[in-house]
Every structure is written in C-alpha cells, then in structure tokens.
Q: What sequence folds into this?
C-alpha cells in the first residue's frame, strides 16, 4: 500500500517567539486560531521549565503520559496544525535534553516555555483529523 | 573551506500520511518516483513498529546496522530526496523514543510504520549523489 | 500571555553540503554573511567528528558547555539565522547519536563536520536579537 498524500499550497509563513512561562503547545494552537490556520507544519527549538510527554501504546492503543519536572532544552520540535473536532490541534513531537546532554523524547502534550523559537508554514487547504480504525488515532484522510 | 550550496526553486509541497504496516523510507521513495521528484527536503513525525538504524563508521567508512524490534515514537525525522544511480533515494535521519522517553537515533534505513505524518518541499532542480573521496559517501556536488 | 510572531516573506531557499573538516555552525554563518541573509530557518542532517554542546542553566542564567570528542551522527539539526550585534548568528540545536544509537543533544556551539546536508529558507525581513530581561538571553522582539 502506498502512502496517502496531498499537494498543498503554502500561503503564509511565520516566525514566532514563544511566551516565557506559558504552555508550548497551547500557544501554537492559540496562534493558529487567531490567524485562522487550518493546516500547517512547523519546526522549533528552545528550552522549557518542565514537560509532559506521551507515548502511544500500539497494543493497548492508549497514550501513556510521562512527567519531567526539570529544566530541559528543546533540541528538536517537529509538528503540524490541523483541525480536531473543528478546532486547531498542534500535533507536536519533541526531543528534550539535560545538562549532561542526555535526552528524552516523545509526543509533547504540554511544557512550560523558558524560551522558544518557531517557524510555521501555513497552507491554503484545511486538514481535518478523523478516527482511524487500525491505529485508534485521529489521522488525516488525504 | 566554505560549504557548497545551491539556490533552489521550491515548486510543489505536499503533506502525507504514511501507510500503516509499510516501510517508512520506501514509501517516501515510491512517492518521489510517482511524482517525478528529483530533489526535496522533508520533516516528519509519527510512530513505528520496529526500526533498523545505521551508524556510519568514519574510520572504517562502512555503515554499521542496529535493529530495534520494538514499538517506537518517531520524535523527529529530517531528510531529503535526491537521485542515487538515477533513482530517488530518501536520505533519512530519525530520533526514536520509548515508553520511558529514552531515545535511539541515527540514519534510518527501514522501519515499519504504525502512523506517520510528513511535510515534503520539492525543488525544481535535480540533485544527484556521486561518490565522494574523503568520506566514501555519496554526496552532492553543488 | 500570547506568543509574539511575525509573518515573513520567504525569498530564497538553498540546499547545502557542509565542508568536511570545517565547523558546522561557522559555515552556516559564513554562508549567511556571503548571501546577505538576515533571517532564515534551517533543518539538516549528517555526521560530525566531535561536538561542543551547551546547556542553558535557567537559574544561573549561564551556558554550561559539554565536549564530545567522538564521531557522532547528526540525527536532527534545527536552527535559525538572525543578527546578533549586527552579524549573522546561527542559533543551532542538534540531536547527535553513537554507534549503539544512544544520543546526546542540546545547543550546538561547534562541531567538526564529517558530512552534512542542509535546507535553508531565507526571509526578506531582518531579525535582530536583543537582550531579554526574564531569561538573560538574546531573543527577537517581534
């Protein structure tokens, strides 16, 4: 089986400085709502004061949360914006690192920003997540 | 010595949902072949059921494979498409993570997709890999 | 508080092959200077012969360096170019990996390139870093 894909038209692009003390993912969603963005990809870097990561159990088909109550660099952040039940959802994965360089990574649910920088490429199209049977995740029907 | 670079013209861009149960890298190459893409960069995120990563031994100048037969998140995926012996090759690096957030990373040779999302930016130009003496790798003469 | 952001106009885009034996970050800054780039985001992948990473101590507000004198893959590199005291500065985060897949990550200050591939998206605007009180970092007033 081949992958599903759709050609998109890049419309607007943005650089952002995330607000200190606020949630990493929530800010991206607030921004998307304010700008009417219904499809985008983004990359970013920075640092956070703490983070909650999720791991998806592929057998139980449930997210398993992990909390890291410590300052961490955001060594990499890759994600996208699409609609989930009509609202912008920022699907966000990140790799975080400590003073000794050691890392933790996963699906970033929330994190308190220390400092953060983002590039967002928004598309003309709207992408909507719908329930996918084999994975029990909300994915794009492209 | 300065880095070699070439200005490129972005032509088309795509969002994709990788097919469950199929190979991560192979799907990107099949897509590139189907769309006639000879140069692109991509970023992605998702989860896989297993992965084979390669590490390049800079002294022996050979790839050293590692197999991870376990479910892993794709916390980050950065790569590009160019031509290798006339066929699209997806040079793919990834950071993968486990239930406890611990990570493994490297050159992603293959991985069975659980779910995956990709942004691809294709260029008008064609990039071709040719053998590079000092590294014994196939690189771009720009 | 919401995040600060600015819509930017993508002007030019580049693919690059980093020079073997030279500094990863320095080459990006030399390139930006040569091309007159005052704002850009980039992603990349490759391998290095060694690396110096920095971790920002959020309490002491000082960078804490770590040296890794070993060959490492660049599993992920995300960064941007903007002006710091009038000169192009490449803010660069990276995730690096070893033969067994184990990783280190952080703010990449310097690294000797073995091989590297980069995509750079340059913007028409100029971004300048200025001192930020709460973090003691140089950030963008957007």
A:
């Amino acid at each position: 089986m081949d992958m599903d894909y759709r050609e998109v038209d890049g419309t607007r692009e943005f650089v952002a400085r995330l607000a200190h003390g606020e949630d990493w993912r929530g800010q991206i969603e607030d921004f998307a709502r304010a700008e009417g963005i219904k499809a985008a990809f983004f990359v970013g870097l920075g640092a956070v004061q703490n983070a909650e990561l999720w791991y998806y159990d592929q057998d139980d088909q449930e997210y398993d949360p992990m909390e890291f109550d410590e300052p961490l660099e955001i060594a990499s952040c890759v994600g996208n914006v699409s609609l989930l039940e009509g609202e912008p959802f920022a699907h966000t994965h990140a790799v975080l690192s400590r003073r000794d360089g050691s890392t933790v990574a996963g699906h970033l649910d929330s994190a308190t920003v220390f400092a953060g920088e983002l590039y967002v490429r928004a598309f003309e199209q709207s992408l909507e997540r719908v329930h996918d049977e084999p994975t029990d995740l909300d994915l794009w029907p492209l």
In short: The radius of gyration of chain C is 15 Å. Chain C has a mean pLDDT of 97. Residues 13-120 of chain C form a domain with the 60s Ribosomal Protein L30; Chain: A; fold (CATH 3.30.1330.80). Chain C is about 10% helix and 65% strand.
